[in-house]
């Protein structure tokens, strides 16, 4: 049920969910482009899909259901055929003595309600949900990948053994099924790894690799060739690494896929990174940043010049955090340019440059070119060397806001890292505004979460006594911690989704003085903690205490 934009605007405004100026901007855009305001608010990360769903449900007088985190029994789901569910935008998610629980985009659709009542002989309890929730639930109609692959391979393995071409339907079908199933399971990467006798397919879900299926070795080269063709790579090159990308058209969105192929002993290994439009809907709040750290970051990105740094290892979410800031800063009156390797998120209104070593378009060369394009805000994908560091720092000194990433373990270490590159301390002190260090941890599944009492003695085996006293107190009874026991929603892992743990170092006057004195990371850390910085492990423990994650995840992320 689509409410008029004016009504959605009033509802959101009355609840004070979105800053008034941003609400007016997006409302104007919705009216100009004739698009639903609710959809645009979610796309601009001003409100979550579930939040706007709850607002509309309350207004309509229905209960709201988040299907993404609701286990649905297959027998109940299949009461309505998949074709009808897609057409009517409805999903049955529960059944009990009170009746059939029906999630609907339009809960006023009496025709489908009466149809279900007639078919089941039970009353229907309509719930409101959003179109994104319906689409997420519709994938539950899909067959299990093992069954689908078994069918494909059984029918076509003989053709593969006879040397069928990679363009043939069986290979295309295998790859399409892989991508679709990876997308449905919210995988970030697909690994296709050749072995002596079989090829192993693994998905990275919530940061952890899972074995999915083994393919016959006979089809491996055909799969590699097909992916090379899709990615416009050389099919006759087998001894050197190749990088490419292609786009997969799924039913409800277009998926950008980045491809890396490298030769290993048993053949060519493929890794495909899935970049979904829906996964790009993020905000700093959604990423897990605390309100205290958000205040610090907002203060610094509101400045017209200086440098904001994100630090952490590969895959810790640095680029995502910087893009969350860019989305806030992305307005028509400013010129934003980026130089990246690779460009991970396509964003309207931002000039994005891809590093290309073949044409000598390096970070440094690209950054120089950007400076001739009259930019207000610049994002440098990574500062790797002295040349790039010097240009970035000079840019921050001359009236530009510069965002970039560094590979350091924590926030304080980023400052001496610049000195190691040969940057003068006074330049570092006068340009760096704030440093965000982060890791990603898996979130507890909300559908199967349970708690247990843990003694202080057990905690002191994992953490220092000082840290335990500071964060857990001195209660001898211990503390209550949480974990998921495993269910159908989280594929029996106990985890569903990921959240960031952060360490935000605000470069204050006292920190600047330490930089000028060439202080080491430990001295800078001690001063920052005195001034109120929450360390990454402390932030992680607080999230474990709140039930967001487990201590095991915090330890895994901070001690790797």
UniProtKB/TrEMBL annotation:
Name by which UniProt lists this protein: Bacterial type II secretion system protein E domain-containing protein
Family: Belongs to the GSP E family.
GO molecular function, one term: ATP hydrolysis activity
One cellular component term from this protein's GO annotations in UniProt: plasma membrane
Keyword annotations of the record: ATP-binding, Nucleotide-binding
Boundaries of every Bacterial type II secretion system protein E domain copy: 371-385
Organism from which the protein derives: Candidatus Buchananbacteria bacterium RIFCSPHIGHO2_01_FULL_44_11
Domain of life of the native organism: Bacteria
InterPro entries linked to this entry: P-loop_NTPase, T2SS/T4SS_dom, T2SS_E_N_sf, T2SS_GspE_N
Pfam families in the record: MshEN (PF05157), T2SSE (PF00437)
